[in-house]
Design brief:
alpha+beta; binds zinc ion
Length: 115
């Protein structure tokens, strides 16, 4: 079975990438569709449905691009999840570009605040 993860942010389509089975404690699991929920504005700002997966959606807390949260080191708007490295592997080029720009913004913020 081939799985395809699609990426939608604020209703805009960013493309898809091939996803794969995960092995959790030696159990094969289909990739899970994710929705990102911003704890500041209460919006579901990103959706990552998975074509051909029978798993139910999981809602993940994550600050949207408009709301940075309280920590200066949060890359708000990012879909990279530390506990889900396979997600990064299936991001299409448009998503990787977006992630790079979001992380670069944090770097620029650090340079400006420290100089
Ligand atoms: Zn928000």
């Amino acid at each position: 079975m081939t799985y395809f993860r699609h990426f939608f942010i604020d209703g805009q389509y960013y493309g898809s990438g091939e996803d794969k089975i995960r092995f959790v404690h030696a159990e094969a699991q289909e990739p899970m569709p994710y929705a990102m929920f911003c704890p500041t504005c209460g919006e579901i700002w990103a959706r990552m449905p998975v074509e051909n997966s029978q798993r139910e959606w999981r809602i993940i807390g994550g600050y949207c691009e408009k709301h940075p949260g309280v920590s200066p080191y949060v890359v708000h708007g990012s879909l990279i999840l530390a506990w889900e490295p396979d997600l990064y592997d299936c991001m299409p080029p448009e998503m990787l570009k977006r992630e790079f720009e979001l992380h670069l913004r944090l770097w620029e913020k650090e340079i400006v605040e420290r100089s």
